[in-house]
Design a protein that fits this description.
globular, 295 residues, alpha/beta, 10 helices
Length: 295
């Protein structure tokens, strides 16, 4: 009888494990435009510290040249370098976003993480909440279920994203905040005002962390935090360590805790990490590699 009960117990445990593995996963990407790493030595950032202690991280991830926002955000959401996705300039000009994906299997732009997820599951729920007027030119909004435009400040943008996350059980949420980049251009990356914006980013990150803890305590949610570039003086710091080096932090149910990633991480690795969590195969023309060390 004891033997039979043991078998039944083991069977139930296996069933529970199988069910847990099949539970829906959510990925949230928090992109903080122009967040450099060298001011962290002076800033009070308890929420970034929380991610470091409970996830995998590096403060040595590398952005791409040309060191503009459009090429690097495109790299983050396409898992590719600018020479592949073909966004080589910045801003609103139409010729920045010509259909030239550098991939013979695609007639138009190189597919983003949003497009790849919708191709796998047309019912997947995706939200994008951006804080920069040119960001929408990087994506196909037909693949986005909830899109909030740049006219809202960082806190309202984050609040809208959190509301979407709480109420819609989404698959993928992308949040873009621009306040650090603006402060860098206005006051300089070495200024006291820029430092306050880094601490504001940490405050907003803390609010997002609390919302995830309240919903599932990171049992089914993976959070990725990344920047598109750093900065030096009042510019992006083209060709400098200060400009090219950015933070990348990941926390989630399958992610190692208190683990510092090795060298060689690029910001386009974000797309591969997100797709792995969501069970989506990478596009064959994406050039970024996986980051197996964090699992």
């Amino acid at each position: 009888m004891k033997y039979l009960l043991t078998i039944v117990f083991c069977f139930l445990c296996m069933m529970h494990l199988s069910f847990s593995q099949q539970e829906k996963q959510t990925v949230i990407i928090l992109g903080i435009d122009g967040l450099n790493v060298y001011r962290f030595e002076e800033a009070e950032t308890p929420n970034f510290d929380f991610l470091k202690q409970n996830g995998s991280w590096t403060f040595e991830a590398q952005a791409n040249e040309p060191l503009y926002s459009s090429p690097n955000w495109k790299s983050i959401i396409t898992g590719s370098s600018p020479d592949v996705h073909k966004v080589l300039k910045n801003g609103f000009d139409k010729d920045v976003y010509l259909n030239d994906p550098g991939c013979e299997s695609e007639l138009e732009k190189l597919p983003t993480i949003f497009t790849m997820l919708k191709r796998k599951d047309a019912n997947a729920k995706i939200g994008v909440f951006e804080h920069w007027g040119a960001f929408h030119k990087l994506i196909d909004k037909n693949n986005i279920d909830k899109y909030a435009k740049w006219r809202f400040g960082p806190k309202p943008s984050l609040n809208r994203a959190i509301k979407f996350y709480k109420n819609n059980d989404p698959d993928l949420v992308f949040i873009h905040l621009d306040h650090c980049d603006r402060a860098g251009h206005l006051y300089g990356h070495e200024s006291a005002k820029y430092l306050t914006k880094v601490e504001k980013a940490d405050e907003l990150l803390g609010k997002l962390i609390k919302s995830i803890q309240a919903k599932d305590n990171f049992e089914n949610t993976t959070l990725i935090v990344v920047a598109d570039h750093g900065g030096k003086g009042k510019d992006h710091g083209h060709g400098t360590v200060e400009g090219m080096t950015v933070p990348l932090l990941v926390i989630g149910p399958a992610i190692k805790k208190n683990y510092e990633m090795k060298a060689g991480i690029k910001i386009q690795n974000v797309a591969i990490i997100a797709m792995k969590v969501l069970g989506v195969e990478r596009h064959k023309c994406w050039t970024a590699l996986g980051v197996d060390e964090i699992y």
